[in-house]
Amino acid sequence: MTTNGGFEPVFCTVVPPHVLDQLARNDDPALSGPARRTLVRDSELRGRRRVTTEFALASAPLAKAPSDQPLRTVYDAGHGTALPGTQVRGEGDDPGRDATVNRAYSGLGATFELFLKAYGRHSIDGDGLPLDATVHYDEDYNNAFWNGEQMVFGDGDGEIFLDFTIPIDVIGHELTHGVTQYTANLTYYGQPGALNESMSDVFGALIKQYTLGQTAAEADWLIGAGLLAPGVTGKALRSMKEPGSAYDDDVLGKDPQPATMDDYVRTGRDNGGVHINSGIPNHAFYLAATALGGNAWERAGQIWFDVLTGGELPDRAMFTDFAALTVKAARERFGDAGDEFRAVAKAWEQVGVRIP
């Protein structure tokens, strides 16, 4: 049960529509074709998700896993679109020959572990929700998504995007949309939608850092590193350290993310720029985490988690609302005189978000 009037599952993809739009306009059909098909498929799925939610057609909850253990199932769509597909690996099964299946399985486990070990949360819903994922979805599908019930991964077109199970933070990003769905239930439009996307980037980055044993100083703070094909001029989908610097490519264009409110993008596209303006709260988290040092999931991550799950964050929260609650959470958990309170307050000041 959410704190904001019930669940509102949304269809959330890791590759923003503006990136696919850019690709779809390319003269080379090898680039434009997969992008156009992905856009069409995403539009269909988004509409289906809306109808399913509105008319309560979602499938009944599955049996819960033990509270301290994940219950993972990986399916293979066989390049079709019927979900979930054929089961190819269940919880406790040995790794197979398909690296994509093995990466998906490991990523589900890493996400479960971070939320359990760092924050005491038992799976996505806090109550041992089974974790399902489907791989090899559709032909040349250039995306990965959370549809309100499970994870789905495309293989990419091989020209611009590689297999979407390669970056563990992509897996963590999408599953965190499920955490948001079951907690703050942030509206997927405008600033609340950008906060929704930012929550997924924050915890996706933390899952990668936790898995690699990296401190805030050691981390690259990139989302989707390893996803772009070798011929693309770029390093990832997004950068939390330097929003706007993830790629600058003849085909993809330039990363449009702003780092501060001075460059906030007002647009009706992409649900009011949810994937673009998420760069601002992303950068605030990076500034707070690196100022505090050490493991980012321990202090900065704990503060963000407290706000996301604490019941006070409204579903239509603006950046200022979220910022104020992070400062409050830092004070309540670590005290007024702590480094945490000062680091969080300063981070929001640096990105131009005023705390009321």
Structure overview:
With 356 residues, the protein is of the alpha+beta class. Helices cover 42% and strands 9% of the residues. The chain is built from ten helices and ten strands. It has helices at residues 17-24, 29-54, 99-119, 168-182, 190-212, 270-273, 279-292, 300-309, 319-334, 339-350; strands spanning 12-13, 72-76, 86-90, 131-135, 144-146, 151-153, 222-223, 238-239, 248-249, 253-254. The strands form three sheets. A six-stranded mixed beta sheet has the order 1-5-6-4-2-3, covered by helices on one side. It has a two-stranded antiparallel sheet with strand order 7-8. A two-stranded antiparallel sheet has the order 9-10. Strand 9 and strand 10 (253-254) form a beta hairpin. Helix 3 (99-119) crosses helix 4 (168-182) and helix 4 packs across helix 5. It starts with 11 loop residues before the first strand and ends in a 6-residue tail after the last helix. The model is unreliable at 1-8 and 49-62 (pLDDT under 50).
Helix and strand layout, with pairings?
Elements: E1 12-13, H1 17-24, H2 29-54, E2 72-76, E3 86-90, H3 99-119, E4 131-135, E5 144-146, E6 151-153, H4 168-182, H5 190-212, E7 222-223, E8 238-239, E9 248-249, E10 253-254, H6 270-273, H7 279-292, H8 300-309, H9 319-334, H10 339-350
Parallel strand pairs: 2-4, 4-6
Antiparallel strand pairs: 1-5, 2-3, 5-6, 7-8, 9-10
Helix pairs in contact: 1-2, 3-4, 4-5, 5-7, 7-10, 8-9, 9-10
